[in-house]
Design a protein that fits this description.
- The strands form six sheets. An eight-stranded antiparallel sheet has the order 20-19-18-17-21-22-23-24, with no helix packed on it. A four-stranded antiparallel sheet has the order 1-2-3-4, with no helix packed on it. A four-stranded antiparallel sheet has the order 5-6-7-8, with no helix packed on it.
- β10 and β11 form a beta hairpin.
- It has about 300 residues and is an all-beta fold.
- Helices cover about 0% and strands about 45% of the residues.
Length: about 300
């Protein structure tokens, strides 16, 4: 058994697959676990993961995609273990700034050079750009997150995109957005920051308002089998949410994260997994405790 420590234990991303499977990007290695309780298996990658820019995503049928700022997105063949360019129409040249599983289980990629958001169309095996009007120099996206209720946000230093359930992506040009992720509060209001100014966008509105921030603010979420959601908050809490009939959310309970941030969150059925600065942990929802399931080899 190899003892791992320091940067080797940092969980950059964790993603769930069908039948309880997990993929984890930890340190500069990629691992797979086929089902709960199974041994971890190392996955050989098509390029080194040593520069810290790799990202992964899993689509609705459990297929794994991997990319980096220097490499286009690739998909692994679950039968042969071979990697190939994931789909057609990824703009060349250029790698991936971020691969994420967004609302409705759709895989999105942000182009490393242009900062443009692309959506993977699995039926056609093709990447398509998410059009938001005329491109502006310096207005590049940095990352994407899924928020409670199937909301999505993608943002960069000078641009914010958002998607409400059943609607298309919208955008607004901001100047000097903070690096922190935009969030959603319990009333379904989107929030973002620009220097010392806070902006909000309420459901049904199309204009951002200069406003004061309220809490709680959720910055990432996953759906659970019982119809609730688990969300990370801006202040690093992990809370279980229940959707009310009026479209707002109520916090049922909260869990203390098992280690320091940054956090990587995923869930499969009723199983919740959280990556931290020092490994991967599985939540016991009955007792509210965590079990360390970090790969050790």
């Amino acid at each position: 058994m190899q003892v791992r420590f320091g940067a080797d234990l940092i969980v950059h991303q964790v993603a769930s697959a069908g039948q309880g499977g997990l993929f984890i990007l930890m340190g500069d290695l990629l691992y797979r676990r086929s089902h709960p309780g199974a041994d971890w298996q190392r996955i050989e990658t098509p390029f080194p993961l040593t520069d810290g820019s790799a990202s992964l995503a899993v689509d609705a049928v459990g297929r794994l995609y991997l990319g980096s700022t220097r490499q286009p997105p690739r998909r692994v063949d679950s039968r042969t273990g071979e990697w190939r360019v994931s789909a057609s129409a990824w703009p060349e040249p250029g790698g991936v700034r971020a691969l994420r599983t967004g609302p409705e289980g759709v895989v999105y990629g942000i182009h490393a050079d242009t900062g443009q958001l692309h959506r993977l169309e699995p039926e056609q095996d093709r990447w398509r750009p998410v059009e938001i009007g005329e491109a502006r120099p310096g207005h590049q996206l940095r990352d994407l997150r899924r928020l409670p209720g199937g909301h999505g946000v993608a943002w960069g230093a000078n641009v914010l995109m958002w998607q409400r359930p059943g609607e298309s992506w919208q955008h607004n040009w901001f100047a000097q957005l903070e690096r922190g992720a935009p969030g959603l509060d319990a009333d379904g209001v989107l929030w973002t920051r620009r220097q010392v100014t806070v902006f909000s966008l309420a459901p049904g509105e199309d204009r951002w308002r200069d406003d004061a921030i309220r809490h709680p603010l959720y910055v990432e979420a996953v759906a659970l089998m019982d119809g609730t959601e688990l969300a990370l908050t801006e202040d690093d809490r992990l809370v279980r949410l229940r959707r009310r009939e009026d479209g707002t959310w109520a916090e049922r309970n909260a869990y203390a994260p098992p280690g320091p941030p940054p956090y990587a969150l995923t869930a499969m059925g009723d199983r919740v997994y959280l990556g931290t600065l020092d490994g991967l942990h599985e939540l016991d929802p009955v007792h509210g405790t965590w079990r360390d399931i970090t790969p050790t080899h």
